Give the backbone structure.
Amino acid sequence: MKNIALVIFVTVALYSALETYASALTLNIVGGQLTGATDVIVGGTLYDVIFLDGSCITLFTGCNEPSDFTFSNALHAAMASSALLNTVMTDTWRGHFDTDPELTEGCESHALCEILTPYWSPFFGASARSASNADSEFDDGVFVSPFFEPEDYRGNPARAWASWTHVAPIPEPATFVLLGTGWGGLYLRKPVSLSACMPSVLRRPSAASGTQTHPAGHRLPLSLAVAHQAGEFAQQTF
């Protein structure tokens, strides 16, 4: 029982480490304005993000080829935008970045802040999904956001860009469980000597009857005696 309890303890500890690792997101706040965040989880991967004003051309190296963007498809851009709404543009003790859209860098509107995450579409070229944060929760959401590459959002009070940087993948929970179980097993497993178990399991039977004496005094057929001894060995070992 002690061995089982310790293995469970190791596994739970590793789950706790994963949960702590996954919740390490840090909001970047300057002068009360939300300027971005570090360690944002998007599809099992950590990213850093900053909010910028300007045009797609000036901020994303021309805005005209796949290598200009962190995300290469609409799904990942939408997941990133959803992560902004759910984990970054939120109300915290450091600021009401959900209910007050103007507290997000690049946005000056009291009613709406759209943060665009660009990506490359093989059909339409430079495209974007936006995390739309309105003063009403019912109007929040992730939307398709058409834009013109030269358009400069420094003159738009309700729009800004999200510039993402890949940090690292997050280990899968199953990996932690396997590692924890393996480490616990290697640490707790008792070395077993084959010579210690062979005399018990393979004890020479009585020449006359082919039987073996049970500890209680009964005589058992050899096959049952071997099974009994094997069961005792398993109980002592595990």
Residues 2-22 form the longest helix (21 residues). Residues 193-237 form one domain. The chain has two domains: 2-169, 193-237. Confidence is low (pLDDT under 50) at residues 5-22, 174-178, 192-228.
